[in-house]
User: What shape does this take?
Amino acid sequence: QVQLVESGGGLVQAGGSLRLSCTASGRTISFYAMGWFRQAPGKEREFVAALSWTGAITPYADSVKGRFTISRDDPKNSVYLQMNRLKPEDTAVYYCAARPPGQYASLSSPANYDSWGQGTQVTVSS
Assistant: This one.
């Protein structure tokens, strides 16, 4: 199983930007499907963005489309989430998730991922 560690969270004013990083160990994630999810207090974990194992599909939640970008850096065995024009409603703990290649289940369901990081807090002030 792959181990994932997120970083890059913090406190930012509305309209600002943050870049979250997810670094993997234990496996090379070059052909893994990778996802970012978030969970706000009192709410269920929700899908943010994903990158299919082929790299050809990059779905985004409607709430972040046009503001967030997911990307992969294979030499660094890492995945990133660039978050621009942040809003207070983006405040949450953000989690990175991974699943091995060759699977075709929905990228937006947390249940379809095998490995999770511990999360990084993002707080957007108004």
Notes: The mean pLDDT is 96. The radius of gyration is 13 Å. The chain has no helices and ten strands.
